[in-house]
Amino acid sequence: MIELTGVRWTYQGGDVAVLDGLDLRVERGETVVLCGPSGSGKSSALRLMNGLIPLFHEGKLEGEVRVDGAPITDLALVGQVTGTVLQHPRRQFFTDAIDTELAFALENFGAPSERIRRRVAEVTAEFGLDELTGRLRELSGGQQQRVACAAAITHGPPILLFDEPTSNLSARAVDDFTRVLSHLRDLGMTLVIAEHRLHYLRDLADRIVILHGGRVTRQWTRPEIAKLTDETMRAEGLRGLRAPVRAAVATAAARGPSIETADAGPTDAVAGADSGVALRGVQCGFRGRRVLDIEEAHLPAGRITAVTGPNGAGKSTLARVLAGLQRHRGNVLLDGRARSRAQRQRETAIVMQDVQRQLFTDSVDAELRLGMTPEQADHAARVLADLDLDHCGDRHPLSLSGGQQQRLVVATARLSGRRVVIFDEPSSGVDRRHLRSMTRTMRDVATGGAVVVLISHDADLLDLAADQELRLRPLS
Amino acid sequence: MTVARSHTERAVPHHVGLPAAAGTPGRWTMDPRTAVALLLAASITIMAPGGLWFVPAALVVGVLLAVTERAWRRAVVIPVAALAAAAANYLLPLAAPWPVLGIVAITAGFVLRLIAIGGIAAHLARTVSPTRLTAALRAARVPSAFTVSGAVLLRFMPTIIAETAAVWDAMRLRGLGGVGGMLRHPLLAIEYFTVPLMASSLRSAEDLSASALLRGLGARKRPTAMHPPRFGRADLAVVAVVAVLIATTVVWRGAL
């Protein structure tokens, strides 16, 4: 179904070949998982299969690529035999409603109107999309991913390609997504999935292919996958094949309508919080709709507080309130004293999900010096080495890989010496080794006396990093 | 190569019906081509010399359209704002012969014209999704160079707005934002703002365009539509109402 033979690929302007001697054959109806450390060429291999390399991304390609028996000559043609689902479904939606999104490919490929309507209705029923209401952008991450899968198969391609499809999904949404994959597999579709999180693919994968330095270094077949141990996975730098079992984490002292009370701990600890951040009567709303309502909460200094909860529970709003970016009612106290929004902006650092928004200068060194005192900058070399960036000082931040950019922003947050440091989903697209270095960095920041807030769905990361959990719930 | 009919198509039971969260229009929705034609005609007529005569007719159309989509606030705001602008336009010069009042009155005259056109534009923006607009433009045989780039532009606007807000937040947290910082180092502030804005927008644009091209946007085949735009009762009603209003305006103008 897919044949890659002796492929070597270098992105335009790149010094190193991202794919170097890649040989891979995927059979019809097979489910193949591509894994390997960040930068090993997983995403590039997928781009070869859907023709984005070399028809969309520019660079130098050698070797042979055949999909469905033919070489790739036109994006729209290969688009008819492949469906692609990216990491951020919201970014790939072209319309604002479910039915128009499903119809998009068929309309562009010139299918008759009657057939489009019938097919959209079929896929809607097949994926249980009838129960979803509202605009696409208002759906939860898991629901959006379900729509993205449905939109990728509506025009009936026999091959589906997924690029880290669960990196922004909660544990429950990953379960839903696993059922969707299982259904597609039962229909006989050929699935190729590039992923770091592997536990949900254990029973689905026919083959796990490990890439290192742009070539296949190892493959495991289904009987071999069943026998894999965590030691083997660790030796390969891969995340575990078993769903992480979250150890019991202390519940943050908090109460209010937005706080999930099912497993709430003692709330009298909220009072007398003279170190760290305390919230008193914090309420927030958008267009007359209440999105966050916390009567009291305490986030202690020196500890990592994980803020969890389903999409729409107000996690990002809480982060914006803490950072002084969001208007709200009530008070936010730091070390026992109420702080204005402007004061909190000066006391807070955030590592955003899309870190490109936070890279302002023309070199890694300049980025670290921006807004730092000389004393803070003295620690720069150590922090860079710790985050595997010590050889990048002169490079332009935008020339770094996604993972490196994220680690650079983490480095600036760590050096900033701010009292409150917020990490917003820092582990999307992060392999096992960098998951640990990310955790070490958060721990260092906390040990330095800061209030560390971690917003994440990633059970692996929460398991490693969280000292206590503040679980939010959506206000109906 | 034709659009493949895969196993997934055969495997599911036949089921016909419209899904929830649909972006499909109702029976009494005006065809986007009518809405665009109406907006263009109103803009040209009202902005032309002597266009003020047609302002009442356009206001009536704007209010009626607001009522049909149950936008009650707009149905009230349009006539009230228009009355205020008309009062400023006609009554201020009578109050005192001051040049300042004259300038305010002339500005109010332009505002009055904009309100009249804005009522119709607001209806178009609220009721016609980019998808329907694109389908309508395709049906009107507008070249794909315009429909594709127009669709991408409409799709990308909200992304740019969201990215701008996020970059501004990031600047404030690094101590680079704020009016003080901008006044002290205006060029640096512009650089700090535009570099991340372009980087993050380009990244979003790359995902979007890759996904759209793979799903056939701009493909050589002539695109179709799930619900081909059709002129219906709503369009007939609009044409009738507009004809009556134009006739009334012409008669009224002749009578004065």
Automatic annotation (TrEMBL), chain A:
Domain ABC transporter: 2-238, 277-475
Pfam families: ABC_tran
Coiled-coil ranges per UniProt: none
Family from the record: Belongs to the ABC transporter superfamily.
Function: Probably part of an ABC transporter complex. Responsible for energy coupling to the transport system.
Superkingdom of the organism of origin: Bacteria
Designated name of the protein: ABC transporter ATP-binding protein
InterPro entries associated with the record: AAA+_ATPase (IPR003593), ABC_transporter-like_ATP-bd (IPR003439), ABC_transpr_CbiO/EcfA_su (IPR015856), ECF_ABC_transporter_ATP-bd (IPR050095), P-loop_NTPase (IPR027417)
Keywords noted in UniProt: ATP-binding, Cell membrane, Membrane, Nucleotide-binding, Repeat, Translocase, Transport
Subcellular compartments: Cell membrane
Main subcellular localisation: membrane
Its membrane topology: Peripheral membrane protein
GO terms assigned for molecular function: ATP binding
